[in-house]
Amino acid sequence: MTEVLTLDAAAVDRYADVLATVGAAVAGFDFAAAETLLEPIADDRWMGHVPTAGSEPREPGAASARDVSDRLRAAVFRRDGFRCSYCGGRAVPRCVLVAVSEAFPRFGYHPHYRRGAMHPAFWALAPEADHTVAHSRGGAGALENLTTMHALCNTAKSDALLTDLPVVDRLEAADGWDGLLSAYPALVEAGNTHGVRQASLRYHPQWLRLFGLQPLGPVVAPASDSVTADE
Ligand SMILES: [Zn+2]
To answer: Rounded to the nearest whole angstrom, what is the distance from the C-alpha of residue 221 to the centroid of ligand 1?
Structure first.
């Protein structure tokens, strides 16, 4: 186990780089290769303290906007190209990280974020849908008033003057970063097949649907109507 006490932009990049290769291997159904690729970061554990503005530490994703539905969160992350609007770094949705942990249990996750049990990527990469402060024209929960932000960056932001906030950049995902969504169905399937379930039965199906993805169900025999009958 490697205890991680601080996270910076380099850590965000390192975790994103490794998980991108892991995701590609799983999407190609090369589970053994994925396990090897994950090896260098698999045993990292977050042992730091998340600085908060005078309040208790909180669980990423539970925080900023309790009035924001999961559907709206998914839309915000997609619109922002899975990039943090504070640091510009890549983000990976929490549901995808949970799927990584289910497929590869060494990649630590605990449903209640137990101290010492969590991989630092849950702080470094998982985004929240955070309220922007500029305007509330469309109401607190509206898409245009929300922005994608790393959990850790969100705490940094809360310490900053509101006027110091960077302008939200509507990234078009020009670099093709997709928050590892392209690997998400295969990760879920890998977890179902030979992993350890951490989330409820409905958790991944719901997030797959919100992101417009199809689950990779078990391979089924061709339906009878696919057999062409001789006329
Ligand atoms: Zn960030």
So the answer is: 45
